[in-house]
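User: What would this chain look like folded?
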Amino acid sequence: MEAARLAEQKGVPVLRRYMQMEIVPAADEALEFRNYLLREEHRDHVRLLDPTAERDHELLRMCGWCNCICCDETWLSVEEAVNYLGLFGAPQLPQITHGICPDCALNFKDLA
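Assistant: Here's the prediction, encoded as structure tokens.
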């Protein structure tokens, strides 16, 4: 089995991190996961990604790999989703649940 490499993007309220994950075969049929930071970009504070922000009971699905958000079956960047959903001035924000977007799922399928 060869090593597999996946690109991913991780976000925090004021940073966007571009990372690469490498999945490498290890002894006894195990797998080793290696993560590498490729670069970081500063961005304006994104309240939706702030774990201290007040939340309501609504759920918002975010891709666990690229951080895109599902809005009416369309996957948008965090900033686009905040605008689309009108969350900029909302007193409470939806809770974030994680899934995988079609583009990232396709990347995983290509590894099989």
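The two ends are 11 Å apart (CA to CA). If you want, I can go into more detail on any region.
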